[in-house]
UniProtKB/TrEMBL annotation:
One Pfam family it belongs to: ETF
Protein source organism: Planotetraspora kaengkrachanensis
Assembly and oligomerization: Heterodimer of an alpha and a beta subunit.
Protein's UniProt name: Electron transfer flavoprotein subunit alpha
Listed GO MF terms: electron transfer activity; flavin adenine dinucleotide binding
Keyword line: FAD, Flavoprotein
Residue ranges occupied by any Electron transfer flavoprotein alpha/beta-subunit N-terminal domain in the UniProt entry: 4-185
Free-text function comment from the UniProt entry: The electron transfer flavoprotein serves as a specific electron acceptor for other dehydrogenases. It transfers the electrons to the main respiratory chain via ETF-ubiquinone oxidoreductase (ETF dehydrogenase).
Family: Belongs to the ETF alpha-subunit/FixB family.
Amino acid sequence: MSEILVLVEHADGDVKKVTLELLTLARSLGEPSAVWAGPGYTDAAKARLAEYGAAKIYVASSEEIVDHVVAPKAELLAKLVSDSSPAAVLVAATAEGKEIAGRLAIKTDSGVITDAVGVSEGFVADQSIFGGGVNVRSRVTKGTPIVAVRPNSTAPVAEPGAGAEEKVEIALSDSARAAKVVERVKQERGARPELTEAAIVVSGGRGVGSGENFAIIEKLADSLGAAVGASRAATDAGWYPHQFQVGQTGKTVSPQLYIATGISGAIQHRAGMQTSKTIVVINKDPEAPIFEIADFGVVGDLFQVVPQLTEEIEKRK
Ligand SMILES: Cc1cc2nc3c(=O)[nH]c(=O)nc-3n(C[C@H](O)[C@H](O)[C@H](O)COP(=O)(O)OP(=O)(O)OC[C@H]3O[C@@H](n4cnc5c(N)ncnc54)[C@H](O)[C@@H]3O)c2cc1C
């Protein structure tokens, strides 16, 4: 069976959900080999990768890999492409993943497709463009297909693989060492789950009215153990940080439950949340386009509905 390399995204030793999605996708195309770059590899990480079908796990755990943000990972993948001639390489379409994909394409003289939302037989990649208005199918015609797949495009499904470990030594080139990390400041992580990995997301839009008012969105989110998201209108107004923006130019989420409050449902917002399993809308305008994709809708003032909903949820705990 043809080998598909999957670059592992990990933080603090934990394998990120997007990697489980990529392994699931890779299983439908061939035999996945996970590629772990940098320190932090543990037995738990190995078990997780094998649980989702990694037949092989390449481990390059040199500290040096994280001393130089992106370039070493591209060099590592290029070495593996040259050594084992895989049928394709899948990376997450995160900012870092896309840069690695581009560098790898140059190094291996291959074609690259970014922001895919699916990959099917023959490595034909689906891309959803113009805010989900147009679907494009593309195929790499030169070299090893390199595809950056958007998080939350595939539902992760466990199916065990052999998880055979293979250590990889890599001698970085001078150009990979040309930019070195001089300081790392860890971002404060609150108690809430990470936006793209959360099972429930509560988002607020322009209807929330101010940054202070986002407190009621946060309260509802906390009552459900959810992440908080925001529309671009809310982030552009400075009411909520940009890293929480959902949509075409923000994050793509696909939780079990998405609660949209005070959001009209512009196509660019929908592009980032329309694959959520259940969508609940709270909006005072019954004509708001977001109701078109709602499973449940409440026509009402969010300043009345949201606190009542939070209170009811808290009572039932
Ligand atoms: C290139 C490009 C990229 C973009 N990328 C993104 C993106 O990634 N994400 C994104 O979100 N947008 C994006 N946008 C912007 C997008 O087009 C919309 O402008 C934006 O999504 C609107 O945000 P909103 O729904 O919060 O605001 P509005 O469209 O103003 O809607 C506010 C809603 O709140 C409701 N409301 C008001 N008061 C209350 C209340 N008290 N109770 C209940 N409901 C109330 C109103 O009825 C209305 O439906 C992008 C635009 C462009 C051009």
